[in-house]
Amino acid sequence: MSTNSEEEADDMMMYCASCGTAEVDDIKLMTCNDCDLVRYCGDACQGDHKSQHEEACKKRAGELHDEILFKQPESSHRGDCPICCLPLPLDTTKSSLHSCCSKEICNGCDHADMVREAEGRLKHRCPFCRKPTPSTDEECDKQMMKRMEANDPVAMLQWGIEQYDKGDYQSALTYFTKAAELGNVTAHYNLSLLYHLGKGVEKDSGKKLHHLEEAAIGGHPNARYNLGIEEGNNGNIERKVKHLIIAANQGYDDSIKALMAAY
């Protein structure tokens, strides 16, 4: 029975859902932008068919979105130490960021490099790129500016955090947005906080949710936990538990405690 349904669905994808034109030779059909259920021979046919397809499209688009949203990330947003290639701990005090190359190095590799330098009486350098370690905040800022000029999202994130700490929320918003556009997961999470608190921008629950979801998909367990709490507050207990389980599997303590309390 399911085989017949799948064959019928495959046959439908060979024809325009509006006018019935088949995909042959030089006629190429385009798939609906929001779902994978139907195809069209052009924008005009897609517009004509909108009223008939809209309900099924929204349902399928939601299903596709949830498939991505509730997939267990392979690793956290922290990634791996570029030297030992082991996952960086969620505890940020157990690693350090180097402004010269924007690389996060685990404390173990940092310590091993310091021992090597001490034994060889070598000048202290970055354990990854081997550039001299800046001795002043001004030198560190210059290195960060160079990284930002090279469109480094980590440098933009860090500069945004500095502006936030200074109370310049508008600048923080600008740099977090640039970093998020370049794929930085933590920047998405920070943007969700700005839209939640209304700092540097008007409060916007829709944009807050969007950035939380982007961060969660990227492996940010805190964002995932916050999504779970949001779903719980909205009465969506099943979705809440799914989020908490994913974050717990990443080792996020608050999610583990929340699941223990629930059961």
Q: What's the short version?
A:
This protein is 58% helix and 5% strand. It is mainly α and 263 residues long. The longest helix is centred in the N-terminal third of the chain and has 27 residues, at 43-69.
Descriptive report:
- The protein is mainly alpha-helical and 263 residues long.
- The chain has helices spanning 2-12, 43-69, 107-120, 137-149, 153-165, 169-181, 185-197, 205-217, 221-233, 237-249, 253-262, and strands at 30-31, 39-40, 95-98, 103-106.
- The strands form 2 sheets. It has a two-stranded antiparallel sheet. It has a two-stranded antiparallel sheet with strand order 3-4.
- A hairpin with a 4-residue loop joins strand 3 and strand 4 (103-106).
- The longest helix has 27 residues, at 43-69.
- The chain is elongated, with a radius of gyration of 24 Å.
- The mean pLDDT is 91.
List the helices and strands and how they pair.
Layout: H1 2-12, E1 30-31, E2 39-40, H2 43-69, E3 95-98, E4 103-106, H3 107-120, H4 137-149, H5 153-165, H6 169-181, H7 185-197, H8 205-217, H9 221-233, H10 237-249, H11 253-262
Antiparallel strand pairs: 1-2, 3-4
Helix pairs in contact: 4-5, 5-6, 6-7, 7-8, 8-9, 9-10, 10-11
Mean pLDDT: 91
Helix and strand succession?
A: HEEHEEHHHHHHHHH
- Assembly type of the chains comes to single chain
**Low-confidence parts, pLDDT < 50 over ≥5 residues?**
none
Measured between the Cα atoms of the first and last residue, the distance is 39 Å
Number of helices: 11
Fraction in helix? 55-70%
Q: What gross morphology would you assign?
A: elongated
Radius of gyration (CA) equals 24 Å
DSSP summary, beta strand count: 4
Strand content: under 5%
The largest β sheet comes out as: 2 strands, antiparallel
